[in-house]
Amino acid sequence: MSFVCGQSVYFEGAKIVFNQSMIIPPFLKEGSTIGIVATARKLTWEELEPTVGILADAGFKVRTGQRMFGAENQFASSDEDRAADMQRMLDDPDINAILCARGGYGTVRMIDKLDFTEFQKHPKWLCGFSDITVLHAHINQNCGVATLHSSMPLSMKDLPEDHLQITTLINSLKGELPNYNFSSHPLNRIGKMEGEIVGGNLSVIYSILGSESDINTDGKILFLEDLDEYLYHIDRMMMNMKRNRKLANLKGLIVGGMSDMNDNAIPFGKTAEEIIREAVNGFDYPVCFSFPAGHIDDNRALILGKKAAIRITDNGSQFQYKTV
Questions:
Q1: What is the C-alpha separation between 324 and 316, in angstroms, rounded?
Q2: Residue 188 near residue 312, CB atoms below 8 Å
Q3: Residue ranges per domain, the chain?
């Protein structure tokens, strides 16, 4: 018995992945509806309200999850309730995009409770970052639908409406895709890369290796970012990625924020960026640091699943999406 799920075909429990083009969900227009749902940690209406206003000012309607202001310990209600909120958003034909309210931890606890059947029939944008990497990876691998790595309400609540975190999110949802120019980095490997972008938070990618949500990185541009990890944890995760051949066949590697790293009393001796660069020293593809995304102030939107071209020079780097 077999059934098709996006770009993957299953035969008696084994998954064979075909290299088909990713589906790009319809872009939004004035009057489109954005659903906001909490898949991980809890939050309050006061933390969400500024983003609702920002989205309304941009011409969108906003609908919030039924249980998103609940609480079960650190989570925004139980796993079952968070999954039910997300399921309603996935299945509702009037919802054009889903914005996750915040990260933290918890999305992996409810991912296997979700049914993406209606989502695949009527794809829509799934937006967020950090812990939301679970959803990005799962949808990429199992549904073949592009998603938007972007800021979330908890990160946006104190920002002006013209901040790049906000404008690149809104413009990307509208199909006004930006080009990015950003500074060079001494650890860059000069060159040009073209391919589909996959990835997200390194810790989350590491945590789903070998699961049904594990992403295929072969022939892709891998994007990585992380926050508040011990440096030896970064090394351990990169060694795992290397031994699992997640780094072997890339078109290129782009690294965003590696923020607020921790060290032991006996120093590890390398920065997070140096650890990552060392892990890919045996490969010859381009490597780009200082990409403007992740747990940083300059967290710009990035479409995962869409093809892009990145040119890395001694004087800086340029990013643009491919039209075909």
A1: 25
A2: yes
A3: 22-174, 180-321
In this predicted structure, what is the pLDDT of residue 312?
Answer: 97
Q: What are 234's two structure tokens?
A: 């970064």
Q: Is the pTM of this model over 0.90?
A: yes
The answer to whether the beta carbons of residues 177 and 152 sit under 8 Å apart is no
What 3-state class would DSSP assign to 302?
Answer: strand
Q: What is the pLDDT of residues 250-299, one digit of tens each?
A: 999 999 999 999 999 999 999 999 999 999 999 999 999 999 999 999 99
What residue has token string 């983003």? 51
* Secondary structure (3-state) at 145: strand
Amino acid identity, position 296? I
Partner residues linked to 35 by β-bridges:
63, 98
Nearest to 60 by CA among 25, 100, 23, 27: 27
Using alpha carbons, list the distances in angstroms from residue 227 to 161, 182, 272, 308. Answer: 25, 20, 10, 25
Q: How far is CA 272 from CA 159, 228, 263, 313, in A?
A: 28, 11, 10, 22
Domain 180-321, what architecture? Answer: 3-Layer(bba) Sandwich (3.50)
Phi then psi for residue 301, to 5 deg, are: -70, 145
d(CA 219, CA 196): 8
What superfamily does domain 22-174 belong to in CATH? Murein tetrapeptidase LD-carboxypeptidase, N-terminal domain (3.40.50.10740)
Chain centroid to Cα 95, Å, comes to 20
Token duo for residue 179: 């080009």
- Scan for tokens 């995304």, then name that residue: 293
